[in-house]
Design brief:
179 residues, mainly beta, elongated
């Protein structure tokens, strides 16, 4: 038995500032396919989603300002919208399942913090390449107690997750330094 669906979402996000406001449309589209084997508890589920987000005024404003004691925040007017692609799969074998997927964006919006002798600490915004493969296994067991009045569920999950960023052709680690 094969089932599928398509879904979408549009959201208007309004941000209020002291003397101004900003409206942004965020949208997402996706679809899933599910195949069930011969009326059993075994099935395969796979899906694709795409979601967009846009930089806000603070991330785009090139005029810097000081935040706190020694942090200078500078926007980037060249930021592009973030388009996040998400592919996932699940294989359910009764009480046991295997899951995995990949999340990717060529324009992930991220803040980078740098420090040097002349400018001090600077937080700025950049588009990074973002790559996140993941996988895992899950065990699920349901047990009813007290004449089916209480459902007890035991769920054990083990996941492996990796995130990789690139800025202008160079790898960036979690400490925002180029490798």
């Amino acid at each position: 038995q094969l089932n599928g669906n398509l879904h979408g979402n549009a959201e208007l996000l309004r941000s209020e500032y002291s003397d101004n406001h900003e409206n942004q449309w965020l949208w997402s589209l996706g679809g899933n396919l599910r195949y069930r084997f011969n009326k059993s508890n075994y099935f395969i589920n796979c899906g694709y989603n795409i979601r967009t987000t846009y930089p806000n005024q603070g991330q785009l404003n090139p005029i810097g300002y000081q935040s706190g004691y020694d942090v200078w925040i500078v926007g980037n007017p060249n930021l592009k919208a973030n388009l996040l692609h998400m592919v996932k799969f699940d294989v359910y074998l009764g009480k046991f399942s295997i899951l995995g997927g990949i999340n990717y964006s060529g324009n992930h919006i991220s803040n980078l913090i740098t420090q040097d002798e002349t400018t001090g600490i600077v937080q700025s915004y950049h588009n990074l390449k973002y790559f996140n493969p993941y996988g895992g296994v899950k065990f699920l067991h349901n047990k009813t107690l007290f004449d089916n009045r209480i459902l007890f569920t035991l769920n054990c999950e083990l996941n492996c997750n990796f995130v990789h960023y690139r800025l202008k052709g160079k790898d960036v680690n979690s400490h925002n330094t180029t490798v």
